[in-house]
Amino acid sequence: LTLELSFYLLMFTVYYFGFMDKIDYIVQLWVFFCIFFWIIQTNDIPVNNILMQVIVYLTIFESYAFIYFCSGIILYRIYKSGDLKNKTYNSLIALLLCCSYLMTDFPIFISTFLYVSIFFLVIANKASFLKKDIFLFLGKISYPLYLVHWSIGIILISYFYEIGISANYTILLA
Fold first, then answer.
1. In whole angstroms, what is the distance from residue 18 CA to residue 20 CA?
2. Which of 24, 36, 42, 44 lies closest to 61, judged by CA?
3. Please, which residues have CB within 8 angstroms of residue 21's CB and are 6 or more apart in sequence?
């Protein structure tokens, strides 16, 4: 939830100060910072400057979730512009997929690749199979379920842990 709130705060700040027309540059800068800090963290490079230490540990730069936030913004921009061949957007998507490959486990990279591919199909009007009632229903309930699943998961994990079920099984059940 901290990641999402950090992202929402960032987007609120961008909107509040009237920088929505600069969102493409903000995303590019965000991707650069995330790659830069990933390199610092994976190579154990000491950070002596206090400002850099604060930035390194900001939630929006610390996690690979930036890949999803930024790709969502870029895919929306492609959708709104209708330009599937925009070199800047496509280069950013390719860079984010490379980040996913380098920064995450292979199954996460595959899911990211599928997520981006499906959205490209939707944007290009090549995904009519997704208009089936079951997919529309799943789309309508997925975000609300996503928002509450962690609290339900914590309750279930705590309950099962108290009655002696292993943490591995409780996470699987939750």
1. 6
2. 36
3. none
